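Hey, resending since the last one bounced:
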Amino acid sequence: MLLALYGVFAFIGLGYFAKTMRMVGNKQSGILLGFLLNFALPAQIFTGIYHVELDIKLIAIMLVALSCSLLGGVTMYFFAKKILKREAGTAIAMAFLATLGNTLFLGIPLIQGSLGQEYANKAILYDQICTAIPLATLTPLVMSFGGKGVFSFRAITMRLSQNPLFLALIAGLFFKLMPFSIGEWIFTPIKQLGASATPVALFAIGVQISLGDIKTEWKNTFFVLLWGMIIVPALMFAFMKASGVVINDTWRMALLESAMPPLISSAAVIMRAGLNNRIAVSSVAFGIFASALTIPFWLHLSYV
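The structure tokens again:
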């Protein structure tokens, strides 16, 4: 885990350094993100989904984690609205940030470093079921609150059908269910392309980090991270203990993924919707650093 965290923060730090020294600008960052979202990540997802061992227990574990995340988001909204007395836009932004975690960019390398490649493949499936699909579903809803669109089944379907990551998931499942196997030699360039996803993604995160809004939004940021990185995984951990299941590495993978900091795409959606963009930037930036403490804590607790 420590080596995984070291690698994560090394690439993020390199990206932030490049941004600070003006070695990378918006144009280069856009090219990196285009390569990442349209080629590297789809290759990683396709390879991971094709090689993952699917079973009902795995899907059930992920649905439990998804339920905990959604419950955390709903309670975050009512806590922000009723207890903290935040305006509707801020409460929606806080709930959205607390619901979806950075299960791909940060989750995959941390799971791979702490549990191994087999569980990194499972984490890819987790990301699609518990993050990508909910993101596509909730984005039109959040945009409608900001007056930027209409929440409808068509809007959700359009987002999914145009998402290269979701299409890579469908393609991986399609070939996995075929009565024949794909030769491993075919995956050689695909794996090489997918291997570039993690360093490029972490570098891109570093380029996009902004620390200025943490000072002005520290209180709201604290509650977002408390909900998303402590309360949601605590719900997951409580279920594991109360149900009496044997906590194996699959459960640990789901627990760690449920504890990831806010998703960068959530911040982008909040900005596009015209909601509280400062809390979005602050939560993403500070959450990445907070994960260096919280993720090892949950990993250690899962062995107790």
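The chain has a mean pLDDT of 85.

Sorry for the duplicate.
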